[in-house]
Amino acid sequence: MTSRVPAGVSEGRGSEEAQPRIIVADVGGTYARLGWTDGVDADQVHDYRRYACADHPNLASILHDYAAGSRCQGAVVAIAGVLEGDRLINSNLPWAVSVEQTRQGAGLSWVQLINDFEAVANAMPVLARDTLSPLTHVTESTTNSPALVIGPGTGLGAALWMEGHPPRVLATEVGQAALAAGNDLEMDVVRRLLRERRHLNNEHVLSGTGLMNLYRCLCELRGGTAIHADAGALVAAAQSGDGLALETLQMFCGWLGSLVGDLAIIFGAKVVYLAGGVTAHIPKFLHDGHFLERYLNKGVMSERLEQVPVWRVEHGQLGLLGAAAWYQQHQ
Fold first, then answer.
1. Which residue from 329, 320, 315, 276 is spatially nearest to 35, judged by alpha carbons?
2. Are 211 and 258 a contacting pair, CB within 8 Å?
3. What sign does the CA torsion over 10, 11, 17, 23 have?
4. Domain-by-domain residue ranges, the chain?
C-alpha cells in the first residue's frame, strides 16, 4: 500500500450511501491499484490501495481481497492488453486473465475489463490544470479533440479520446507496433536488438524494460560496461552525471518524442497528453529539449505540430479516475 494518496483519490471509505459501490482498478505488469466509486462523481475514488501483482496468484485474488467487507458489487478493471472473448491477450502480466474466472474467484456480480489507456484517456476531461506540465512552447489549442494519450510504463500504451455524448475512445496497441529508427545511432540500436528477436516493437525501447535494453545497447556501442541493474538506478546515475546513463535518457526521450509526433500526425491529434509510470520518474530529461526537438522534426508537418500542445501529466492515478469515468458513462 502506498503512503501517498493522489489528488482525487481518498483513503477513507466515506459515509454509507444508497448508490452501489463499484471497484475501479488499474492493473499493470508490476502493481494493481484499486479504489471504489459509486458512479456519482467520476473524479472521486475512495479507499485507495496498491497491490504487488507478483504477490498474488491471479487478478481474482486481488479483487477478492479488496472486495472483502467493502459492499462492492462489481468491478471495472483497466488493464493492459486486448480482450478476445473471455480471455485477455497481454505480454506483461504475471498471470493469465479470464473474465468469468476472475468474476467467480473475486465473488463479484460482474467484472468489466477495459484497455488501460482507454481508461487513461477517459480521465483527461476530469484532470485539474495544475496536474499538467507543458513540454511544448504552445500551450493552447483551438480544440481539445481528438486528444492523443500515450505513456511508457511496464509496456507502452496509447489511446485517442474524441469528444461526444458520450465521448468515444479508440484504444490501440501501439506498444506492439514496429519500432522505427530516426537516425544512425537508433539504426545501430535496432540492428543489435534484432539479433535477439524477429519482431522489434516500440516497447522493446520505449518502456521501463526498454529503457534498460537501450542502455545495454549503448554500452556495447560505446565500449562501456552495463553497471546499472534497473531503471531507477539508471535514472539516478544520469542525474548524477554518469555519461552513458545520461545519453540513454536523452536518447530515450528523443525517440519517444519522435513516436509521439508520428502518432499525432497519424491520428490528427489536436492535443497530446504524456502519461505512464516511466515519465513520472524522468521529468528533468523530458523537459531538456530532446523530446521536443524530435517531436517537431517531421518535415512539412513540423509547422502543424507546432500548434499541437504536449502536456506531461503529473497525476498518479489516471487509470482509477478513468475507470470511474467509464463506469459513470456506461452504468
1. 320
2. no
3. positive
4. 21-123+318-330, 128-313
- Look-up: residue for cell 524477429? 198
CA distance 221 to 45: 47
DSSP calls for 267-281? HT-SEEEE-STTGGG
- Angle 216-220-225 from CA coordinates, rounded to 5°: 70
Could you tell me the pTM of the whole model?
0.82
pLDDT in tens, 261-303: 999 999 999 999 999 889 989 999 999 999 999 999 999 999 9
Q: Say if CB 218 and CB 189 are below 8 A apart.
A: yes
Q: What is the CATH number of domain 128-313?
A: 3.40.367.20
| Peptide bond before residue 6 is cis, with ω within 30 degrees of 0 | no
Residues in Cβ contact with 70 at an 8 Å cutoff, skipping those fewer than 6 apart: 13, 21, 23, 36, 47
CA distances to 8, 11, 100, 173, 306 from 72, rounded to whole Å, are 19, 16, 17, 31, 46
